[in-house]
UniProtKB/TrEMBL annotation:
<dbReference type="GO" id="GO:0046872">
    <property type="term" value="F:metal ion binding"/>
</dbReference>
<keyword id="KW-0413">Isomerase</keyword>
<dbReference type="InterPro" id="IPR037523">
    <property type="entry name" value="VOC_core"/>
</dbReference>
<dbReference type="InterPro" id="IPR029068">
    <property type="entry name" value="Glyas_Bleomycin-R_OHBP_Dase"/>
</dbReference>
<protein>
    <recommendedName>
        <fullName>3-dehydroshikimate dehydratase</fullName>
        <ecNumber>4.2.1.118</ecNumber>
    </recommendedName>
</protein>
<keyword id="KW-0670">Pyruvate</keyword>
<keyword id="KW-0456">Lyase</keyword>
<feature type="binding site">
    <location>
        <position position="504"/>
    </location>
    <ligand>
        <name>Mg(2+)</name>
    </ligand>
</feature>
<keyword id="KW-0479">Metal-binding</keyword>
<dbReference type="GO" id="GO:0046565">
    <property type="term" value="F:3-dehydroshikimate dehydratase activity"/>
</dbReference>
<feature type="binding site">
    <location>
        <position position="241"/>
    </location>
    <ligand>
        <name>a divalent metal cation</name>
    </ligand>
</feature>
<dbReference type="GO" id="GO:0046279">
    <property type="term" value="P:3,4-dihydroxybenzoate biosynthetic process"/>
</dbReference>
<comment type="similarity">
    <text>Belongs to the bacterial two-domain DSD family.</text>
</comment>
<feature type="binding site">
    <location>
        <position position="136"/>
    </location>
    <ligand>
        <name>a divalent metal cation</name>
    </ligand>
</feature>
<feature type="binding site">
    <location>
        <position position="167"/>
    </location>
    <ligand>
        <name>a divalent metal cation</name>
    </ligand>
</feature>
<dbReference type="InterPro" id="IPR050312">
    <property type="entry name" value="IolE/XylAMocC-like"/>
</dbReference>
<dbReference type="InterPro" id="IPR043700">
    <property type="entry name" value="DSD"/>
</dbReference>
Amino acid sequence: MTPTTAVATVCLSGTLDDKLTAAADAGFAGVEIFEPDLVASPLAPAAIRDRCADLGLSIDLYQPFRDLDSTSPDRFAANLGRLERKLEVMRQLGTDTLLVCSSVSPDAVPDPDLLAGQLHTAAGRAADHGIRIAYEALAWGAHVNTYEASWDVVARAGHPALGLCLDSFHILSRGSDPAGIRDIPGEKLLFLQLADAPHLDMDVLQWSRHHRLFPGQGAWDLSAFLTHVLAAGYRGPLSLEVFNDVFRQADPGRTAIDAHRSLLALRDATARRAHVQSAGAVPAVPTGSVPTGVAFAEVAVDAESGPLIARALDGLGFTHTGHHRTKPVQLWTQGEARLLLNTGVTRPGGAISALGLHTADPGASAARAEALLAPVLPRTRGPAEADLAAIAAPDGTEVFFCGTGDDWLADFTPAAEAPDRPGAGVTRVDHIALTQPFDHYDEATLFYRAVLGLTPQPTAEYAAPFGLVRSRAFTDPAERVRIALSVTLLRRGDWAPPVASPQHIAFATDDIVATARAVRGRGAPLLAVPDNYYDDLDARLGPDPALLADLRELGIFYDRDADGAFLHCYTEILGGAVFFELVQRVGRYTGYGAPNAPVRMAAHRTARLALAQAGPDPAIRKLR
Ligand SMILES: O=C(O)c1ccc(O)c(O)c1
Ligand SMILES: [Mg+2]
């Protein structure tokens, strides 16, 4: 059987009505009503019930009821009075499950038998209204703060209207082993809340209230977790409960789609686990076809950036080999690297407009993307006439699924002016680096991982001249596709210049010193790197002196780890929003030279300021 999907209203921004509309539009079957959303709503509980019914949403849970138990008999009696009021609200709402979370109060009951007795009393009151209590251990609960402790108390209470609410955050944040959930009787598991989170070494309450993520966006294996819960016999909805400062202020319609995608992908991933499948589960999302290579990258150019970029590509050893039969698109090639310059699309704020990815089965890739709610693009704006399915990534970059045969190349006619001359050693695209809008970084993580089937690499964080940057790459198993996302961890202010967030395409070479020397000779606008960098590099990593001299001469950055080395250099920013990188990987180095990124950013600003001072061009001055 397939569990239904639900979302807690606390996940979404806006008023209760905004949230309910967004949840219904995104395809959720149910909601958890978070009490503060109800309290702030102009709708009476009965009207909320009607509204949800109109939207086709079930109300699966009302929450939270806090600090029920008390060592003071008077206070416990008062709490029962408060409970009666909420049970009446629930009767009007037409919902039958109340979440009671473990107490955080100084008067919380430490004795498990006394606590079980009070929960038993409360469950009796709830049962009189046909309501069940789902008891949840908050990770910071005063005495009950693990699922094991909450189950101990619920088992002691032994009331048929009392069971557990499991919340993956509280369980995984404390490092508890979720395998023990299998020993809890399924009928005692009344509700399941799912949240992912990044690894953070911080107070668990702050972590929970600000940094939760939708499954697949963080560091935890929610599919393994869910497998245990299903194995125990849980048959209720899969419900998201994500407290997150970014989602709390983002468009709720969009967040709800991201949220629903996370559950569809989680349900799919769980159904694909062999032992779950043997129990009759059927994956509900088409299998897809993981990308195996970069067919092309497309850059949107205008009258100003077009000639600059074309000149730079020429300097980098690329050849303008073709143009599209019907569209204003140039094809530039070198080795296996293909770059399209398109004057027919505008891309405010970003220069890379599209990626073409090789997949063994483009139809399957597109079908999976569509089932996971990715926006499918109308097939009118292909870079090629070939019937390529395309979807939009969260930042608007168009992703085309190209077969491995590169049929799309047939739509380009050879450029008459193509000179026959050797390249500069570029072999292929090494990676594509996309700076992400602040609000959509986590959504992008889920997109590249679940929709495209790429594997997330470790997250890097570094302090850069224009703010703290977080970055993470996504690759296929053979590392032929590498997409590196980065984001500043705080919203940018007015100070940060546009050079803080250009995108770039990195090209691979087997000999960067030779390539850099060749492209410099051809007039490529390579970025100058300050001497201080090389002095520090010498002190830190001490590369061979002859190599260091070459690096210094040519403006090549260097990084090294236990697996290998990384040598890379950059062009200046070309126009407003794009630059190129040349990279050489030595050994099994799989990173992106993150320690060098702040120096690169400062060097880009230095170059841009010098350009603005030298030239009268107001367009350039504006961009510095
Ligand atoms: O942060 C809280 O208070 C809170 C409330 C209800 C929950 O279900 C929860 O997991 C956390
Ligand atoms: Mg919870």
